[in-house]
Amino acid sequence: MSSQLPVLFEPELLGSDLEALRAAVDALERQSFAGRLARMAGRKIGFVSGPLPAQLQAAASAATHKALNTALNVALTSLEGAPQGDSTRLHKRLAALAGGVGGAVGLASLPLELPVSTTIMLRSIADIARNEGENLRNPETGLACLEVFALGGHPDDKVLEGGYLAVRGLLAKSVTDAARFITARGVLQEGAPVIVRLVSQVATRFGVVVSQKAAAQAVPLIGAVSGAAINVAFTDHFQTLARGHFAVRRLERVYDPAMVRRHYARIAREEGYWDPPVSA
Predict the structure, then answer these.
(1) CA dihedral in degrees (172, 8, 255, 153; nearest 10)?
(2) Residue 71 in domain
(3) What is the pTM of this model?
(4) Which of 87, 216, 223, 244 could pair covalently with 27 via S-S, beta carbons 3.0-4.6 A apart?
(5) What angle do CA 37, 230, 64 make, to 5 degrees?
(6) In b/e form, how buried is each residue of 201-226, taking b as 16+ CB within 10 angstroms?
(7) Which residue range(s) make up the domain with 61?
(8) Is residue 42, in this structure, part of any structural domain at all?
(9) What would the pLDDT profile of 207-234 be if each residue is shown by its tens digit?
């Protein structure tokens, strides 16, 4: 006979933590980057949600992999010494500057501009993580920062069923394996299979948003001013995702993670972000 006692009730989140989880669900499920662009510029760049030219896709893919490898190095080597505080406004100004250059020069600047923009965003994401109690000395935290770049895009413009939780589930093994590898070796090896697999998984989703950004900045009439505005929206999008992501992770350190995820799923369905479960 089993000695395990039955579960008599589902633990509840405390009031302020429940509100924090609701805010996290809203941040992570509410709006895509394409939606931000559509709101910002209307029909002028409405094509970003459609198929992109092969040349643009290839350029965006190459730039995405380069940017993520650069960001991964930064995430695991130099985040710990960054000054503490809310630096989101500073990072938006830096992103606007980089985006202004990209908008003025055009698509040719993407391989140079994107690693800069991505690193700027990564430092802002790390600041958000630290404000939510994360330890930047821990390689797993650096990888969790990189994970944010996978949360913003959906391949073929299809939202993955289960939203944020599904994306984390897809990445979980790769993140765990990469963290163990880095902890054991004490050094980052970009060509290691576990690192290549993680970067490729993140790049698949981050590349969707990069392609949309590049398509918007490639429109001749937009120019440098709107290029800066697009990069600010790009940065703000990932800062918003980071706030939600690290709020969920903070709650998972306080409560049973499975319970937090059940509450997350319930809220996402109640708010209409996910379809309700099919009744038997």
Answers:
(1) 40
(2) yes
(3) 0.83
(4) 244
(5) 100
(6) bbbbbbbbbbbbbbbbbbbeebeeeb
(7) 53-270
(8) no
(9) 888 888 877 777 654 544 466 778 788 8
Average pLDDT score, the chain: 78
Q: Give pLDDT tens digits for 80-126.
A: 655 555 555 554 555 555 544 444 445 566 777 788 888 888 888 98
- CB contact set of 173 (below 8 Å; sequence gap of 6+): none
Judge whether 27 lies within some domain. no
Closest CA to 264 of 27, 30, 25, 16: 25
Q: Domain for residue 182, yes or no?
A: yes
Q: What is the rounded distance in angstroms from the CA atom of residue 52 to the CA atom of residue 60?
A: 10
Q: Is 175 left (phi over 0), alpha (psi -120 to 50) or beta?
A: alpha
Contact 129, 145 (CB under 8 A): yes
Within 10 angstroms of residue 157's Cβ, the number of other Cβ atoms is 14
The total number of structural domains that make up the chain: 1
Report the alpha-carbon distance of residue 160 to residue 218 in Å, rounded.
28
Is residue 226 within 8 A of residue 2, CB to CB? The reply is: no
For tokens 């094509």, the residue is 47
